[in-house]
C-alpha cells in the first residue's frame, strides 16, 4: 500500500500546484494582452451604467439594432449554447421562427440576406457582437422608424466597426450595446 500511496500523493500535490496555481497564472498573463486585460468593461450612458461591453444584452425593439439571440436568455451567470444539433427539429423550428420574426420586422430584407448570427445563438449565449453585415441589414428598418437618413446610419455602423486584433485575429465586428448608444446620440442630434 505504501508503494502506491506516496506516488499518488505526489501526483495529487503536483496536479493541485499546476491546475490551481500555475495554469491560472498563465491564463492571467495571456489576458493582460487582451483588450481591457480580460476584465469586464462597463458602459455608461448619461451618467448611468447601462451594461457591460463584453456581455451580450437583449435588443429586440424595432428602433434599435437587434442583438444576437441567446440560448440562455442573456443570463451571464449560466452561459452556454442550446446543445441542439443542426438537424434537431426543435432547433430548426426555433431558427425558422426567428427568421419569420426578422422578416416581419424587416420587410425590405429577403431570407437569403439575413446573416446567420441574427437567427442563431452563439456558443456562450452571451456574444455582444454582430457582424457589420448584420448591422447594415437592419438599417432600413431603423431609418424608417427614427426618421434618419440611411447614409447616416451606414456611417454610424462603419464608425462602430471594430477591426480584427492586430489586423489578423478574428473578424470585423460591431458591439451592439455601443452601437445603440451611438444611435441614441445621433437621434438626439436630429
Provide an overview of this structure.
The chain has 6 helices and 5 strands, in the order αββαβαααββα. The chain has helices spanning 2-31, 89-105, 132-136, 139-146, 150-160, 176-189, and strands at residues 42-45, 48-52, 129-130, 161-162, 173-175. The longest helix is centred in the first third of the chain and has 30 residues, at 2-31. It has a 3-stranded antiparallel beta sheet with strand order 3-5-4. The chain is mainly alpha-helical and 190 residues long. The chain folds into 2 domains: 1-33; 47-189, no CATH class. Strand 1 (42-45) and strand 2 form a beta hairpin. Helix 5 (150-160) packs antiparallel against helix 6 (176-189). The system is composed of three essential subunits: KdpA, KdpB and KdpC.
**Percentage beta strand:** 5-15%
Beta strand count: 5
In total, the number of domains comes to 2
Q: What structural class results from the helix and strand content?
A: mainly alpha
Poorly predicted tracts of residues: none
Report how far apart the termini are: 81 Å
Radius of gyration: 22 Å
Subcellular location: Cell membrane
Main location: membrane
Organism: Arcicella rosea
Pfam families: KdpC
Amino acid at each position: 500500500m505504501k508503494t502506491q500511496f506516496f506516488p499518488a500523493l505526489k501526483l495529487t500535490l503536483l496536479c493541485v500546484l499546476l491546475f490551481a496555481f500555475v495554469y491560472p497564472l498563465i491564463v492571467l498573463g495571456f489576458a493582460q494582452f487582451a483588450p481591457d486585460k480580460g476584465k469586464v468593461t462597463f458602459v455608461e450612458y448619461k451618467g448611468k451604467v447601462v451594461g457591460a461591453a463584453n456581455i451580450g444584452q437583449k435588443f429586440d425593439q424595432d428602433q434599435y439594432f437587434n442583438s444576437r439571440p441567446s440560448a440562455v436568455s442573456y443570463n451571464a451567470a449560466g452561459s452556454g449554447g442550446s446543445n441542439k444539433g443542426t438537424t434537431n427539429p426543435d432547433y430548426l423550428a426555433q431558427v425558422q421562427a426567428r427568421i419569420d420574426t426578422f422578416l416581419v420586422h424587416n420587410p425590405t430584407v429577403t431570407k437569403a440576406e439575413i446573416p446567420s448570427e441574427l437567427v442563431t445563438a452563439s456558443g456562450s449565449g452571451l456574444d455582444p457582437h454582430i457582424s457589420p453585415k448584420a448591422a447594415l441589414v437592419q438599417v432600413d428598418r431603423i431609418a424608417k422608424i427614427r426618421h434618419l437618413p440611411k447614409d447616416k446610419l451606414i456611417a454610424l455602423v462603419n464608425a462602430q466597426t471594430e477591426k480584427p486584433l492586430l489586423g489578423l485575429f478574428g473578424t470585423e465586428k460591431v458591439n451592439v450595446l455601443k452601437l445603440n448608444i451611438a444611435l441614441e446620440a445621433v437621434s438626439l442630434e436630429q
